[in-house]
Amino acid sequence: MNRFPRPRLHCRFLSAPPALRLRAAHAIVGALLPVQSPPCAPPTPRQTPCSPAPLLCAPPRTRPSISAPSSAPPRAPNTRSFACSQVVVHARTYAATATAADDATVEWDPEGPAVPLPRLPFRFETGVGLFPKETKTRPFPPPFLSPPSGSFSDALSTHGRPKVNGQLLRGVTNGDDAVYAGDYFICANDGVGAWSKRPRGHAGLWSRLLLHFWVTAIEKDTLRHADPDPSAPLHCRPYEPDAIAYLEEAHAAVTRVTTGPAEYFGTTTATGAQLHFRLTDSSSSPCTPQPRPIVHVTNLGDSQVLIVRPSTRQVVFRSEEQWHWFDCPRQLGSNSTDSARENAQVTAVDVQVGDVVLAMSDGVIDNLWGHEVVDVVLHAMERWTANEAAEQHAGSQMQFTAQALLDAAKVVAMDVYAESPYMERAIDMGAMYE
Q1: Which keywords has UniProt assigned to this entry (predicted)?
Q2: In a designed cystine with 333, which of 4, 180, 267, 327 is the match (CB 3.0 to 4.6 A)?
């Protein structure tokens, strides 16, 4: 249902053609939750009375909720949100070894034993809504996709599961786009579909590879700041993430694996939100710094990150879209002069537990104005809270909210007479006429 009565055009003025307005759309919604910890171990002799308090002590994963975690049983796996009932997201581990120095950190070592990522004091509860422009997604070319084995004995064939450098690709492909939703990072990369008409062009491959290497760059840096002692209560030492470096590293990695014999061309926008924390002094306990959540937003292109505070029904942050000209966003990839260092917008946003972080492609924000997005999100959350049946239907509040947002965008996109932000922008840029 379209909950927004909007003007419809029945005069000589031309609305945006459906071929332009019906874009691949995806919305990733994450609610900020604290991670509840049991009492930590007593301080060791090395700690002073004013040593920073431990942040985490092996907390159990709790039931999805917009408020503090309850004592309900752990949630079931949800393939659309890439989350399971453990603190460490499924398959999110790396091989690592620790040095013996006093300031030892976890170093990247492909041959070392697998260790889980350190846990942070806060996490995202996520939901994903997907709607591809094309119903059939182009398969990835070799060597990124294994051909069928042709053997009946190969029950565990990797056919259909894209890989790079021996690792399964993170995230999910949505047409030419790629999305990722984890406990500490959400990402929406919008591939430029025009590359599908070029020889060896594959925007879907580029957007998915950039997402994969972006996620792994963040996780490798998190591991470098992990405490090498698995029994240490402070699982992750406070540090300042370098959002630009992560995206630069990802871009360079995609360029490496798509040149040479496996040469494929493409470009993609990049939009991500990384959940982290900073330590601040507490007025009640000045010797015990307390963690406060912070979201590092990175955006290059015409997708958007929006942070909403349901408690006050206000927008905390909205990233700015970037274009070279109308319908040509800034993008990373083949023949593009844009770069993460020169063009990406990076913002550190202080947030609160209960805030909602959205990463949306232009398929959503081209069809819904900002106030409509906020209204859909808040209304969906209220419906889910008021109706227990919604939990059984959608799995989680954030999944229910993401799908509601996507459905609202689809209603406008399918109506050739409805006014929309995309149509307004096209008129302003002189792209439409009588």
Answers
A1: Hydrolase, Magnesium, Manganese, Metal-binding, Protein phosphatase
A2: 267
